[in-house]
Specification:
The complex is a heterodimer. By secondary structure, chain A is mainly α. Chain A folds into two domains: 2-83, no CATH class; 104-318, MetI-like (MetI-like fold, Orthogonal Bundle), CATH 1.10.3720. Helix content of chain A is 74%, strand content 2%. Chain A has 14 helices and two strands; from the N terminus they run ααααββαααααααααα. A two-stranded antiparallel sheet of chain A has the order 1-2. In chain A, helix 1 (2-29) runs antiparallel to helix 14 (290-318), helix 5 (98-133) runs antiparallel to helix 6 and helix 5 crosses helix 9. The longest helix of chain A is centred in the middle third of the chain and has 36 residues, at 98-133. Chain B is α/β, with parallel strands linked by helices. Among the domains of chain B are: 118-185, no CATH class; 260-352, no CATH class. Chain B is built from 13 helices and eleven strands. Chain B has helices spanning 62-70, 96-102, 114-117, 124-136, 140-153, 159-162, 172-184, 202-219, 230-236, 254-259, 264-271, 317-320, 337-352; strands at 20-31, 34-46, 51-55, 78-86, 89-90, 107-110, 190-194, 222-226, 239-244, 247-253, 330-331. In chain B, strand 4 and strand 5 (89-90) form a beta hairpin. The termini of chain B are close together. The relative contact order of chain B is 0.15. Classes of the chains: A mainly alpha, B alpha/beta. Chain A binds chain B through residues 135-136, 221-234, 240-241, 244-245, 318-321, and chain B through 70, 72, 76, 96, 100-105, 108-109, 111, 113, 116-122, 127, 130-131, 134-135, 166, 168, 179, 182.
Chain lengths: 325, 353
């Protein structure tokens, strides 16, 4: 187990460096010159040169890459001041340090992800299991029907409808915004309640369908039949024997979803005008802001790798045949 | 095989006081394509301490019959008619709770594939202990002692250490032994073994068969042994039921059915069995054709499309009317007793030498 974590962590670091390199060189290869963009209308060669100098764009490309990557570990010095590790560079566009910008935005994304995940795992997987347990009954039909309808919705459809009803028409809620939990837990809760619920609704529907079909598949397994042949009650068979196996596909998809959401829930953030990581990624790309794009990219990749390791540990916990070695 | 006598020496039909008595059992599945008659009017009896062998091709209804006895068929897609009486208790109409009390307790089943039939998620010990705790109200500790004792009985080395192993840490033969130990945890009076040795090496197979026989002697259980291996059945069973297309086509003691079979299907089964002393150049004689679709079974005798002897029956009897299976030693075929006798002696027996 310990060995597994060490090995996977080293692997993750190598992957991060590779992802960083790929992002960096792709960006550099793109036919756009940030310096001339920043220079504006009345641009003179001297001014352009100054901007290049200030942004470090006149250095050889490998030097730029090295500066960026080493800055993450050791910190960097910019003309505007020191950037302490983990330094993801300074935004070309705003001039802010990328790391602190990300840290500003991350709590919003984390709240959305955590809140959404709690709802869709509990409600979604729960409803799916109940539907499978009561297969063929009215409960199952309602759960299947509702989840079918909801999962064909999109956040940018449901979001504005919800906003219209709860914010603009009735005024029951304020416009969604992030408030630090440390300052006012109630405001933190209500501030992001609508986006969390809208996002969770759509995910819940998907998890309901997945949990139901996964469970039904497991119930047809031979070892489940054996358990029934031993005289174990339906409930016991369901929640001990079938449940365990049905978790494997759910954990897989959950891992993918969570890591993607931590890297930025772009659609949700844009729909509700929230300032999260997803928004930041879009800004970075739109403004051709290399350090910001690199930063967001690596930040997202970091979570994908971490969640991957956690998912593998979860597999080993669920299925004793999986050995972490 | 054995010498023949010209008389019909049928054992007396077993009365309703049999330990397990199945009467006119019909199991139907409704599928998208229509109704599948998986079992269509099957009757048989099993006595305590005796073994009934059931042979037949895949899809002949062997496994469905036995899953139905345990009530493990899917109630949403299947309908069951007829009677299954175990020791005076009617099972077809029994509630799920009543069946739960019987399963793994009074009646137990050994499944075919030990690789998939044991849960990969729990230790062998836990899976063995569960039925004992449930049916006997035993403590975890007592159940563990019992499980270790049973593992030892079925020949698992170091059962104490193996108790906490997962099934994937067992070899195929050991898993099958564990499966048997699990079925025997509560000393079942009826043990259904569904091809328990098909997935095993012959050497392991022989050990498992011996084990089952020993355990039967010890506990006096009734055993239903399903297989398509006639060699195994001749070694294991007292009585034999040959199934085809959801029905019994021949019934009798093992000696009678294998020694003097009376149904063309049984002849075919015997002729298609390879023999150890067979000439390498001698072709086997498989039954022509394939098992019938149970969605749309042939008219009359379901075996007629594959039967080599239907021309011996006058008129269109074989395609029009379904031959009944009599009581006791019987075969469901329109050929007369004399015809069966002479065809077997003249045409079939020479092949079986």
């Amino acid at each position: 187990m310990f060995q597994f974590i060490i090995r996977r962590t080293v692997g993750a670091l190598v992957t991060l460096i590779l992802i960083g390199a790929a992002t960096f060189f792709l960006f550099v290869a793109a036919p756009s010159d940030y310096a001339s963009l920043a220079c504006g209308k009345d641009c003179s060669p001297a001014r352009l040169e100054d901007i290049r100098q200030a942004l470090g764009l006149n250095l050889p490309i490998h030097q730029q890459f090295w500066d960026f990557m080493s800055g993450i570990v050791m910190g960097r010095d910019f003309p505007t001041g020191h950037c302490s590790a983990p330094c993801l560079g300074q935004s070309f566009y705003s001039g802010d340090m990328v790391w602190s910008t990300i840290m500003d935005r991350f709590p919003t994304t984390l709240t959305l992800t955590a809140g959404g995940a709690v709802v869709f795992v509990i409600v979604g997987v729960g409803a799916g299991m109940i539907a499978a347990y009561k297969r063929g009954t009215m409960v199952d039909k309602v759960a299947t029907g509702v989840s079918m309808v909801l999962s064909s919705f999109q956040i940018y459809v449901l979001g504005p409808i919800v906003l219209l009803i709860f914010v603009y028409s009735t005024g029951w809620m304020d416009n969604p915004a992030y408030h630090p939990i440390t300052e006012n837990p109630w405001k933190w809760f209500t501030g992001l309640l609508l986006p969390v619920l809208v996002m969770a609704t759509i995910f819940t529907a998907q998890y309901t369908r997945m949990a139901r079909s996964s469970m039904i598949e497991q119930l047809a397994e031979e070892h489940v039949r054996t358990a029934r042949a031993k005289g174990m009650s339906n409930k016991y068979v369901f929640f001990r024997y079938a449940w365990r196996g049905s978790m494997i596909p759910i954990v897989t998809v959950l891992g993918i979803d969570i890591s993607a959401m931590l890297g930025g829930a772009v659609v949700t953030e844009l729909t509700f005008s929230l300032q999260g990581i997803g928004r930041l990624a879009v800004d970075g790309a739109v403004h051709k802001d290399l350090p910001l794009t690199m930063g967001v990219m690596l930040f997202g990749a970091f979570f994908i790798l971490i969640v991957n390791i956690l998912t593998d540990i979860a597999y080993a916990y669920i299925d004793p045949r999986v050995r972490l070695s | 095989m054995t010498t023949l006598t010209k008389t019909e020496d049928a054992p007396a039909p077993t009365g309703p006081e049999s330990f397990l008595s199945v009467r006119d059992l019909k199991v139907q599945f409704s599928t998208e394509d229509g109704i599948v008659k998986a079992v269509d009017g099957l009757s048989f009896d099993v006595e305590r301490g005796k073994t009934l062998g059931i042979v037949g091709e895949s899809g002949s209804g062997k496994s469905v019959t036995n899953l139905t006895i345990l009530g493990l068929h899917n109630p949403r897609t299947s309908t069951v008619d007829g009677e299954i009486v175990l020791d005076g208790k009617e099972l077809v109409t029994a509630t799920e709770k009543e069946l739960e009390q019987l399963r793994g307790n009074k009646m137990a089943m050994i499944f075919q594939d030990p690789l998939t039939a044991l849960s990969p998620f729990y230790t062998v010990g836990r899976q063995l202990s569960e039925p004992f705790m449930k049916h006997r109200g035993a403590s975890k500790k007592d159940a563990k002692d019992r499980a270790i004792q049973m593992l030892e009985k079925v020949g698992i080395p170091q059962p104490k250490a193996r108790f906490d192993d997962y099934p994937h840490q067992f070899s195929g033969g050991m898993r099958q032994r564990a499966m048997i130990a699990m079925a025997l945890m509560c000393d079942p009076e009826l043990l259904i073994a569904d091809e328990p040795t098909t997935a095993l090496d012959v050497t392991v197979q022989a050990q498992i068969l011996d084990l089952l026989k020993d355990l039967q002697q010890e506990f006096g259980s009734a055993i239903i042994f399903i297989t398509h291996d006639l060699g195994v059945i001749s070694n294991m069973a007292d009585d034999l039921l040959v199934m085809y297309a959801g029905r019994a086509v021949e019934r009798g003691s093992v000696r009678e059915v294998l020694g003097a079979p009376k149904h063309p299907y049984t002849w075919g089964l015997l002729s298609s069995m390879p023999r150890l002393d067979g000439d390498i150049n001698e072709a086997l004689e498989p039954i022509p054709g394939s098992p019938p679709s149970l969605l749309n079974p042939p008219s009359g005798c379901p075996f007629h499309p594959r039967c080599a002897f239907k021309d011996e029956v006058p008129g269109t009897l074989c395609t029009d009317s379904r031959p009944p299976l009599g009581e006791g030693r019987a075969s469901a075929c329109h050929l007369t007793a004399e015809q069966k006798q002479s065809i077997f002696i003249d045409k079939i027996q020479p092949r079986l030498r």
